[in-house]
Amino acid sequence: MSRLITRAIALLEKIPHSLIAFIARFSIAAVFWKSGQTKVEGLAIDLIDGSFQLGWPRLADSTIPLFKSEYHVPLLSPEIAAHMAAFAEHFFPLLILIGFATRFSALALLGMTLTIQLFVYPDAYPTHGTWAAVLLYLTATGPGKLSIDHLIARRFAN
Questions:
Q1: Which of 5, 54, 88, 91 has the most other CB atoms within 10 Å of its CB?
Q2: Any domain includes 6
Q3: Is 8 part of a structural domain of the chain?
Q4: Residues in the chain, pLDDT under 70
Q5: How far apart are CA 23 and CA 35, in angstroms?
Q6: What is the enclosing helix (H) or strand (E) of 5?
């Protein structure tokens, strides 16, 4: 029985980091991108359902009232917090998806996750813990070979 378990573990250890990292990047980018899409109008890109509208993004009419009533972020006005969140939820997921400045972007979204956990939805720790685990994984291990970061590292390795 222990030989079977040892062989199974050896097989599982062959799952490439690059595959795990790509799935992690795609998944966490989708979480934040979709959240960002609820905050803006004029730009809609969803690779899963195929919706596509290019335009200059602007805050949706419901965004600032939501930051006034539900998303109480300390030290920032609702207007500034809404703009910062909408920007961050589009910019950093895009960087993570293509694997550029991945570790920095993962840290930025981890900071956002901690802010949401502490000040907005403290009861949602199972969800936020999952996000944090993925973001910490990417921060610790990097984006893998299917990334711009990897190409840059190879280019400047010598």
A1: 88
A2: no
A3: no
A4: 158
A5: 19
A6: helix 2-12
